[in-house]
Structures are given as C-alpha cells and as structure tokens.
C-alpha cells in the first residue's frame, strides 16, 4: 500500500521534483509545497479508486493526509 | 504615539498590549512583547552582519510564525523585504534574487531541501538565516537569533517615505515586475482597512494568503496595528478545506480574508453546517470575481456575518469596497463599490479623457496606498501612470489599473473587464503574454497562442502551439518546460499542438477563432 501511494505521488504528482531528497513515507506532503491543493484532490481520488474506499469530507483532514504513513494508517482504519 | 513606519506598529502594540497574542500558527504563538523583542534580535543580527539601509532581504518561507518575525525584523534593520514564492521554480526565484541583489535570505528547516537545490543555481547569497544545514554559505539558526543580546541594539532611523517591501508579480516580457511600497503606503493601507472594518484588539484575523500576495498585508499590518491577533493558516490547512473549517471554528476567527476560491472550497467541504462559526463578523474576499451562486450559498451558511468585496491591484493594495449583509434581489454581478478614504479616481476613455457618467473606461487611482513604482523599471513605471497637471505647478499622479469599469449615479463602480492580457485565475494574476514568451523560448516552438477558456464554472489556461517543421514534442514535455520557467499557477492546463493557427487579415494569430473552434 505504502509503495503504491509513493509510486503514484512520485510519478504522477511530482513530475519535476525540485527537492534535494527523495520522497519517503514520512515526508511532509502538505507543509513544504510538495502537493498543491489540486494535487491533494488528485491523491484523494487515487486512493479512493485504488483501494476502493470512500473518503468523506470530514476525513479529508491534516491528520489523515500529512504524509504517506498517515494515509496508510487512515486507510487501514477504514 | 503617532505612527509613521511599519515597525512603529509593533512597538506601539508592544507597549499597549504586551501580553496579548499577536500571531499564532498551529501551536506556536508570539505576544506583542515577544514579537518586538524577536524582531529587534533579527534586526540586530542583520545590521551587525553588514546589511545596510535600503538593502533587499529575501524571505523564503512557507506559511509559518517566522514570516512575521522576518518581515518586521528586516524592516527594523532599515532594509526592504522581498517575499519570495517558495512554490515557484528555482529559475524564477533566481531572477528575483539577482534582480534585487539579495545576499541575505531568511528561511526555515522545513524548506531545507528546496534551499539546498536553490543554492545549486550559482547565486550570490552570503547568508541564510533560519536553518543550519550543510550548505556552502554562512547560516544561523532561529534559536541562535533569539539568543542575541539587545543591550547594545541601536535602532535604525527610518522615515515614512523609505522603501519597505517589493512584491513581485508576473510581467508581460517574461520578467517578473517588482511593486515597490514604502512604509507610508503600507501603513496607509493598515490604517484605512482597520478603520473601514472597525478592527479592534479583541478581533482574531484569519490570514490565508502567503506573504508574496498583497492580501497578506491585512493580517500582517492591519491586525497588529490595533492589537488584534492574527492566525496564520498553515499550508496544510489551505490544502484540506475540512481542516480549514475546523480551524476557523476552533480559533474563534472574527475576520476572515482570502481569495474566493478558499471560501468555495470551504463551502464544498460540507463542513460549514457541522461546525460553529458564530464568531465570524466580517468575511472579506478579493483577488478575483466571486461567482454569485457560491456567494449566495455562503451567505446562507453565515447569516450573521457581513461581507466585503475588496478590490485593488497590488500597486495600490486596496482602493474600493462593497460591504453587504444581503444582496439586492435582481443583482447580476457584484459591484466593486466605492473608493475608500484618502483616494480619488477617474474613469478614462481611450483618448485619456474622462468618460461620461455610466460610460465604460479605464479606472485610474490616486491614493495614499499607492506604490512608489516598479523596481528598477522607470519606463514601465511611467507607462503605468496618468499625470494631470493643474496650474503648471500642481501635478496629480494616478495609477492606471488596466481595469475597465463604469460608475452608476450613486458613485458605485462596476467591473467590466480588463483592457490587456492580464487575467485572474484562482486568485492569481496571470499575464498571458508572459506564458507565450516562455513557450516561444522553447527551441521547438515556432508560435504559441495562450488564452483563457471557460470550462464549466472554471477558467482554464489553454495553449495552442505551432512547432517548427519536422519537430516532435509532447504536451507533457511542454508542461515540464513551463514548470521550469513559470509560477505553478501560470502553467497552462491544456496544451495542444496544432498543424496551423488561424490568422486575422493582418496576419496575427486569431485567438477569438481558436476559442470558437475549441468551444465546438
């Protein structure tokens, strides 16, 4: 699950990475400008489709989408 | 005390409200007393390191508490702050850094990988404040700045007409243009806006905009002027509207100011019914037109709040307002409203003569909040001004907004459109000619036509491309190329490589026809 999400972000959302380091499962996705708000919408749409879950608006919060680890933890709790 | 400069704001509120919360971000806060001390510590470091009055100091920070310390610290040192867009491509950031001869940059550990990459671009940076990292220039951490002893601190003499900040926006030649504001124009804005909205020390202002956006001056200048608290919305909150809605409720925000898009996202999150936001008394929006459909829905969710349509190019910050709690039933579009105090205007026709009442023309503005010009660009500055000479010795200088408006019999202004190729999309000012000049710089591109398409309720940037013969390039490659040279928000949403571009009789690319073809 972690690798699938990382791969998606790396290939689809970060096509021109201006960061020094590679993306890790604990890299902050929201604070340092890796994803913009459109990227966030795309990521949510991707996990919904890929893992066949529905992410309701009240779950679209920082605690669940801060990094890939938190996305995985959230998905496992579903 | 009488205030003349922006740092006077902090000094004054530190005296009147030393222990009140001045700024807050997530879990961190500073009181006015702490803000005064911390900004003096930064100023002392800058002065001791050789920063001279008028020097430009760059701020490369995400939305965080250090932004306000950087702004007032730089200003106290007599220097000029230049807010940089940390999401911009490095080539663009490099242009601004070089153009302003910036040698001191203020940042934070959050952006260390971006800063490291930025340093790979052969910059003449001498010092980075806010992160200690293995980089080839001098660095000092925030912790060390906040240990600086102030017993020998000598404040720098600053006058109201001294330059305070330069905000960069896109320019049609592809080079960003720097809008210069003085302490006086910045403070004028803070006074006028706090007065207009009855801002007081009990208010809690929600600041959504990054510091490179003029909307941010409300949270950074106006709120501290009256001792109000500013809650700096984090980058994470701007991306997750449900979290943003919780923040507004939990922080008891009383005055909100953002682009309409942020409010639309809040509305679409469906969270506004579930949370208590009764503390909101003013909702300000600006930067682009707010569609009436969404606005009316939002007004239903927040029946006790007053709303204000804020208008003004960054060159004058704000100049008109339309305040309302309900809307006339037959309203077709939201008025720009009336000009505020200490501001005059004219509506000029194409011959620079005053348009008759009700007739369309370009809005020109004269105000205490007006910029002092474009950085290092006298020619462009002069082009942007309209001069009226009376009795040979009196001259009134107006800024040409480039916006076409008309005025009704009550003196209320209405927006019609723009007279050039600047557009506002998702709140950002985008120059379509700039995108074209970037595309044409690609070795395979012969000609490019960039325009705005209305797709459903959204506006999209569309680029029609004509390649040189025998060249092959994919839209994705063009997008990558644009990403290196343009701000993220200016990258076209749709690239199309055409075999031929339709022309007008004079041989120009016929953009109207391209749009018409695209619509079918």
Question: What descriptors fit this protein?
Answer:
heterodimer; A: 78 residues; mainly alpha; Non-ribosomal Peptide Synthetase Peptidyl Carrier Protein, Chain A; globular; B: 520 residues; alpha/beta; Rossmann fold; Luciferase, domain 3; GMP Synthetase, Chain A, domain 3; 3 domains; 9-stranded mixed β-sheet; 5-stranded parallel β-sheet
Molecular structure report:
The complex is a heterodimer of chains A (78) and B (520). With 78 residues, chain A is mainly alpha-helical. Chain A has one domain: ACP-like (Non-ribosomal Peptide Synthetase Peptidyl Carrier Protein, Chain A), CATH 1.10.1200. Chain A is 51% helix and 0% strand. Chain A has helices at 2-13, 37-50, 62-65, 68-77. In chain A, α1 crosses α2. The model of chain A has no long low-confidence stretch (mean pLDDT 85). With 520 residues, chain B is of the alpha/beta class. Chain B has three domains: 6-239, ANL, N-terminal domain (Rossmann fold, 3-Layer(aba) Sandwich), CATH 3.40.50.12780; 336-418, Luciferase, Domain 3 (Luciferase, domain 3); 422-519, ANL, C-terminal domain (GMP Synthetase, Chain A, domain 3, 2-Layer Sandwich). In chain B, 30% of the residues lie in helices and 28% in strands. Chain B is built from 16 helices and 27 strands. Chain B has a nine-stranded mixed sheet with strand order 2-1-11-10-12-13-14-15-16, with helices on both faces. Chain B has a five-stranded parallel sheet with strand order 4-3-5-6-7. In chain B, strands 17, 18, 20, 21 and 22 form a five-stranded antiparallel sheet that branches. In chain B, α1 (6-16) packs across α2 (32-48) and α10 (241-250) crosses α11 (260-268). Chain B is globular. The mean pLDDT of chain B is 92. Chains A and B meet through loops of A and α5, α9, α10 and α15 of B. Chain A: InterPro entries: ACP-like_sf, PP-bd_ACP. Chain A: It holds the Pfam family PP-binding. Chain A: This is Acyl carrier protein. Chain A: Residues 1-78 form the Carrier domain. Chain B: Pfam families: AMP-binding (PF00501), AMP-binding_C (PF13193).
């Amino acid at each position: 699950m972690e690798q699938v999400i990382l791969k998606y972000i790396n290939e689809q959302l970060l096509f021109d990475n201006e960061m020094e380091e590679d993306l890790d499962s604990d890299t902050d996705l929201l604070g340092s400008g890796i994803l913009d708000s459109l990227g966030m919408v795309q990521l949510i749409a991707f996990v919904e489709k890929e893992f066949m879950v529905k992410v309701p608006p009240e779950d679209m919060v920082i605690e669940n989408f801060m990094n890939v680890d938190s996305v995985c933890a959230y998905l496992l709790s579903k | 005390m009488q205030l003349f400069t922006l740092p006077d704001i902090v000094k004054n509120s530190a005296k009147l409200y030393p222990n009140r919360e001045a700024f807050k971000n997530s879990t961190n806060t500073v009181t006015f007393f702490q803000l005064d001390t911390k900004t003096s510590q930064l100023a002392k470091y800058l002065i001791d390191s050789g920063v001279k009055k008028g020097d430009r100091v760059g701020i490369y920070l995400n939305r965080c508490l250090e932004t306000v310390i950087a702004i007032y610290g730089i200003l106290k040192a007599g220097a000029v702050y230049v807010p940089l867009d940390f999401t911009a491509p490095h080539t663009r950031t490099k242009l601004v850094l070089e153009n302003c001869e910036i040698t001191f940059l203020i940042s934070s550990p959050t952006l260390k990988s971006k800063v490291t990459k930025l340093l790979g671009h052969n910059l003449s940076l001498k010092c980075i404040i806010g992160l200690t990292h293995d980089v080839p220039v001098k660095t000092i951490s925030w912790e060390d700045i906040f240990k600086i002893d102030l017993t020998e601190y000598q404040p720098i003499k600053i006058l109201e007409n001294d330059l305070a900040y330069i905000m960069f926006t896109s320019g049609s030649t592809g080079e960003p243009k720097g809008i210069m504001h003085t302490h006086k124009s910045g403070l004028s804005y803070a006074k006028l806006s706090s007065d207009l909205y009855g801002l007081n020390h009990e208010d809690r202002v929600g600041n959504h905009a990054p510091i490179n956006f003029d909307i941010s001056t409300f949270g950074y200048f106006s709120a501290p002027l009256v001792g109000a608290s500013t809650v700096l919305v984090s980058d994470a909150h701007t991306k997750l509207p449900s979290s943003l809605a919780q923040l507004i409720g939990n922080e008891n925000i009383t005055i909100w100011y953002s682009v309409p898009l942020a409010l639309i996202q809040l509305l679409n999150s469906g969270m506004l019914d579930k949370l208590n936001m009764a503390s909101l008394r003013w909702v300000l929006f600006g930067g682009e037109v707010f569609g009436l459909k969404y606005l009316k829905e939002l007004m239903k969710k927040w029946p006790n709040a007053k709303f204000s349509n804020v208008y003004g190019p960054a060159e004058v910050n704000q100049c008109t307002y339309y305040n309302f709690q309900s809307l006339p039933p037959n309203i077709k579009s939201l008025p720009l409203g009336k000009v505020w105090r200490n501001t005059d205007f004219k509506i000029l026709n194409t011959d620079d003569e005053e348009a008759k009442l009700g007739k369309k023309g370009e809005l020109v503005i004269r105000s205490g909040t007006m910029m002092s010009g474009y950085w290092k660009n006298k020619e462009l500055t002069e082009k942007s001004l309209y001069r009226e000479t009376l009795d040979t010795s009196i001259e009134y200088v107006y800024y040409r907004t480039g916006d076409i408006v008309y005025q009704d019999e009550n003196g209320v202004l209405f927006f019609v459109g723009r007279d050039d190729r600047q557009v506002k999309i998702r709140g950002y000012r985008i120059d379509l000619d700039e995108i074209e000049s970037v595309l044409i710089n690609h070795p395979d591109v012969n000609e490019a036509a960039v325009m705005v398409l209305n797709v459903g309720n959204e506006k999209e940037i569309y680029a029609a491309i004509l390649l040189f013969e025998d060249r092959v390039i994919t839209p994705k490659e063009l997008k990558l190329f644009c990403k290196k040279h343009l701000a993220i928000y200016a990258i076209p949403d749709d690239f199309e490589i055409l075999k031929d571009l339709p022309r007008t009789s004079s041989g120009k690319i016929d953009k109207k026809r391209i749009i018409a073809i695209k619509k079918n």
